[in-house]
Amino acid sequence: MSTTLSAPPLGLLLEDIVRRHRPRQNAGSVPTNIPFLATVPFDRFGIAVATTSGEVFSSGDAGVPFSIQSISKVFTLAMALQGGRSAGLWSRVLREPSGTSFNSLVQLEAEKGIPRNPFINAGALVVTDHLLEETPDAATQLLRFLTEQAGSPGPFIDEAAAAGELDSSSRNLALAHFLKDFGNLTRPAAVVVENYVRQCSIMMTCVQLAKAGLFLANNGQGTSGTVLSPSETKRIGSIMLTCGMYDAAGEFAYRVGLPGKSGVGGGILVIVPGRCSICVWSPRLDAKGNSLAGTAALADLSDRTGWSVF
Ligand code: GLN
């Protein structure tokens, strides 16, 4: 795969990215509502690139499973859009950047229970409710989807981590109750939140996530066939670009120039349309809930390869 003329071959470049960006001190934060995440060593750092030509490059801790958290929101949206299943969804959730934190209650109240986009918690709860119309266990459906797209068994739901998060899910329950009060939730709030938290608790490696996200870079074509139409795939990429990093979407677009989706487990999935899908992981977060080292590494990688949608 060609990068810019001055860049070394991709495998060597990724090794250099790991050397430069693996954290040397415990800077940044971990979310307080998910006890499991505080146990992950601060110096973990992995990166993987899956190309549309079928190659996979990786370096660092790219084979270590981590909690995908909000990266799950890209894939639940893809599932909700598959095969014309989106009927009714877009009247329940918008496609505008939120400009607020991912779990803000204020905006949801002010905007009468219609979440700004599917990548903040309130929006993802609506998407999960939508999926629950067809299955009682949307988290297991998501696990199957991710396993199929990753091309091999490996992803799993960390039920203990999910139980730990559920014990301190007051804010997500509050969001779900607001949605319910505004008539924008069909299932009971507790059922939707439990499914949502189990989706977030799926464990995957950078390599598995990069492969699972490849359809987003490949016109909707996944490992075993068509996942989405090219037009739906383009739309998910657009929502990633504008809403994928919560209230840091503008800053991330400025620094990296690519559609991305982060999770508070420290992972970021990024798409280079037509070329590759990239997953980077490092667990310590900035004030907006995005991986500190992961964002810096992606800015560096996009500068050195010239990969950008601009
Ligand atoms: N499970 C997390 C939560 O609901 C996911 C948030 C995230 O990754 N931004 O708080």
From TrEMBL:
Keywords: Acetylation, Hydrolase. Pfam families: Glutaminase (PF04960). It catalyses: L-glutamine + H2O = L-glutamate + NH4(+). Substrate binds at residues 70, 121, 165, 172, 196, 246, 264. One of its GO terms (molecular function) is glutaminase activity. InterPro entries: Beta-lactam/transpept-like, Glutaminase. Its EC number is 3.5.1.2. SUPFAM superfamilies: beta-lactamase/transpeptidase-like. The keyword Hydrolase applies. Belongs to the glutaminase family. PANTHER family: GLUTAMINASE (PTHR12544:SF29). Homotetramer. This is Glutaminase. It comes from Pseudarthrobacter enclensis.
